[in-house]
Description:
It is a single chain. The protein has 2 domains: 24-106, Beta Barrel (Elongation Factor Tu (Ef-tu), domain 3); 120-179, SH3 type barrels, CATH 2.30.30.240. It is mainly β. The chain has 1 helix and 14 strands. The strands form 3 sheets. The protein has a 6-stranded antiparallel β-barrel. The chain has a 6-stranded mixed β-sheet with strand order 12-11-10-9-14-13, with no helix packed on it. 3% of the residues lie in helices and 44% in strands. A hairpin with a 2-residue loop joins strand 5 (65-75) and strand 6. The chain has one helix at 89-93, and strands spanning 3-5, 24-34, 39-44, 57-60, 65-75, 78-83, 99-103, 114-116, 124-127, 132-141, 146-151, 157-161, 167-171, 176-179.
Amino acid sequence: xxxxxxxxxxxxxxxxxxxxxxxxxxxxxxxxxxxxxxxxxxxxxxxxxxxxxxxxxxxxxxxxxxxxxxxxxxxxxxxxxxxxxxxxxxxxxxxxxxxxxxxxxxxxxxxxxxxxxxxxxxxxxxxxxxxxxxxxxxxxxxxxxxxxxxxxxxxxxxxxxxxxxxxxxxxxxxxxxxxxxxxxxxxxx
Length: 189
């Protein structure tokens, strides 16, 4: 859920899920129990771990079981959490390897011009001449910048760097991204 600067309109910052967006967002994965009093280690997958505080309800596993966080503390590998109704090591061990999720409607609002990566998946990509290149099928996180994996109708992939000189406009409402192709980005045809 890494935010990115560009393209979002003010009416898209409300945090509500437009059609086609996921209902839940993964914020972590539960690991092994910690100690004997019902605590468990969670690997953090969110950029906003501060929202996972005591009193917050999260949804665990594929059945989206609602569970309230009772306690939280930082750990070298993420967070150590305890949940309402899980007071022993044995009880919390049943949650091991399950994903921790929050409703997408509860995601923090981003500043104007930023968006979440999941909002980009499936967007149509066109170049500045109107040529349709395909749609974003994945986003690769590299050290310098993200790279959009754009897949066309035939299944071929093109890698588009997420840099200012290439990404011209992101229109979430219109479900498309306009790009300027630098020499060498497209394979010779």
